[in-house]
Design a protein that fits this description.
about 300 residues; 6-stranded mixed β-sheet; 6 helices; 20 strands
């Protein structure tokens, strides 16, 4: 029997590559970003989810971000500040979802229809195959990201790039900061987000752009379509729930920023559905272990020899 949405908790982690051992728990809707340092970039990642119910316990259910005029209808946001460690062609940096193993046997009916709607109405640059042995959906970062802001060159300290830690509570606007204005103008990039996305659907325009080593780029990916509370994709005129197709353990949706040709990973953000019963069992085990350690400590104190017991 399929579990209801209220029987799961969401856990969000982020890290420099696919290995979960390198990931840290993201403070969703929290006051700080998650810092990521990889071979290919230095980044700060911020995740916001409307009506959030998940881990860590006590996380805010919302963020001021969703009260700003641009985001009142959005369900989630993955925002980042990123400094490439080497320059990379605008045609090579892609953002999207991928999976470690085939998922075609667990895809709900209507998946192909949903993909066609997404590609037609939301992201024409999206490409991929969810039915392959290595399921994936990637789009060029330049045409897929909702908001792109080009910043100045970053400073270096002790051989490492310093990335500003400022958290933009209301989100960022399309545009540029400092000398980033000239960078956009030099490549004839439109100042409007929708026009910029359309402009970079052209491969030639993407190849003319370069994500420069040491320059700060800010991005924000958001939409009103993916509802993490009901675990459903709600598209214009079409809704698709995944609840009945989850396995008995944990299911994940992974976002990755990576190099198209070399598959070099810049950073990864993973949304994992965890059954509440597993979280409760883990919490009980930790509590029990804590009591055991506490009892052992008391026993040791009880058996400590007193000064007058020593000959």
């Amino acid at each position: 029997m399929a579990k209801g949405a209220d029987q799961y908790l969401l856990r969000v982690t982020a890290g420099p590559d696919y290995d979960p051992a390198t990931h840290t728990l993201v403070a969703v809707n929290g006051p700080t970003s998650t810092h990521i340092f990889s071979e290919h970039c230095t980044a700060n990642v911020t995740v916001r989810i409307q009506n959030y119910r998940g881990l860590p316990h006590g996380s805010p259910s919302t963020s001021p971000y969703f009260s700003s005029a641009l985001h009142t209808h959005d369900q989630y946001s993955i925002a980042f500040s990123m400094i490439p460690h080497t320059s990379i062609s605008g045609n090579d940096l892609v953002f999207g979802n991928d999976f470690d193993r085939p998922i075609k046997s667990r895809l709900p009916p209507g998946t192909e229809t949903a993909f066609k709607i997404v590609k037609w109405a939301i992201d024409p640059g999206l490409e991929g195959d969810l039915y392959s042995d290595k399921p994936h959906l990637y789009g060029p970062l330049l045409s897929s990201i909702n908001v792109l802001r080009v910043g100045p060159k970053a400073a270096r300290k002790d051989g490492k790039w310093e990335i500003p830690a400022h958290l933009y509570e209301d989100g960022i606007d399309e545009g540029a900061d400092g000398e980033g204005e000239e960078v956009r103008k030099a490549k004839n990039v439109p100042g409007d987000a929708a026009a910029r996305k359309k402009y970079f659907l052209n491969e030639g325009h993407r190849k003319e752009w370069e994500f420069e080593e040491g320059r700060v780029y800010r991005g924000d990916f958001f939409n009103p379509y993916l509802d993490f509370n009901q675990f459903a994709l709600k598209l214009p005129g079409f809704s698709l729930s995944v609840l009945g197709y989850l396995n008995d353990k944990e299911d994940s949706l992974r976002y990755v920023l990576k190099h198209r040709s070399t598959s070099e990973v810049f950073f990864v953000v993973v949304f994992t559905l965890v059954p509440k019963e597993d979280v409760e069992k883990e919490g009980a085990a930790v509590s029990q272990e804590g009591k055991k350690v506490e009892n052992e400590g008391r026993k040791q104190e009880e058996y400590q020899p007193k000064d007058d017991d020593v000959d």
